[in-house]
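Hey, quick one: can you model this chain's 3D structure?
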Amino acid sequence: MSAEAVSRVQTMPSTISKLTRASRARLEESEPAMTRFTGTALILALCLSADLQADDVSWLGEITVSPQSPELPEAGVIRPLPGSGVKTPEQWSVQRESLRREWFKFLGPMPDRGDLNAKVLQSEVVEGIRRELIEYDAEAGQRVQGYLLRPEKPAASLPAVVALHPTNSATIDEIAGVRGREQSMIGWKLARRGFVVFCPRCFLWQDASSYDEAVAAHREKHPRTLGMARMLFDAQRGVDMLCSLEYVDVNRIGAIGHSLGAKETLYLAAFDDRVCCGVFSEGGMGLRSTNWDAPWYLGNAIHQPEFPRNHHELLALIAPRPFLVIGGESGPGAADGERSWVLLNAARPVWDLFGQPVRLGLLNHQQGHAVPDDVFERMAEWMQVYCAER
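Sure thing. Here's the predicted structure for all 390 residues.
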């Protein structure tokens, strides 16, 4: 990898920069269907809206007020954050590095990320968007594929997004708009809004006939490394890909994902400071809310009564970069909702160290494990405001 490419890949954005955005309507102008507060929560949301900056989404006040006394069954160990005596962002940064080390010790090692050795396998232009199927090195000797979506004639310094696909047989084809349900074409729809988008394939579907086969191949090469560490590694390779493109602004790279893709988004935003903002849709914030114990995620260690880690720690590592959690509350497969506030609230003291407004929130659309059209509009606006216009 050239010195220039290495520099671009390793560029770290500032913790939060002043956003540039035209004034928006305040909370009272938000769509009524999306406003689900009553009583005290609504009053608090309206009060908080008065403190919103013109460069925030107008509905930030709606999603940053927790319901009273949320409950998360089998929440696991939730250690208080930040640590004793931590009262400033500078003091938190020391504890943050210690916490990162503890997480990496649990996840296990992955090799250094080298040259991508990218090769274009297919290329087409659809509705002014060039869609390229790219093959590249995940790690030395292991090729993976992903779709790159960009304007046919890209201008310089464009915002970009790593779009991480959910669990389905179409994998990158659906999220990149090749085939499948339009509702799930998150990457394609963001590309049509002006983002450069990279959609990498999860290792579970790359050259493997089953999840177990993919995990076995991973463990053969990395016996001390969890499947979630491999997913994080692959997502970081997606960021590497975007950073290697001369027309991408490396300070404006976001991450977005639904279901499995949301899990990857959480870990990517927590452990890669190149990501300036994120959207986590129905990934299951609670360790026992979905199949986090699967061998391709975190394994059975999370069932130990004294297991010390929990996902509020990852939310704290993300602070103060804008991070939106999407929940569907109930119905088949629904993984997040009011219960997820337990972990957001546990991370909130760290976010408060950075001042107001806090850009960590939960949008509970109460429509199950899906990405309804009106919810995608909110997701896209979040990326527009906190990535494209930052």
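One thing worth noting: The chain is about 35% helix and 15% strand.
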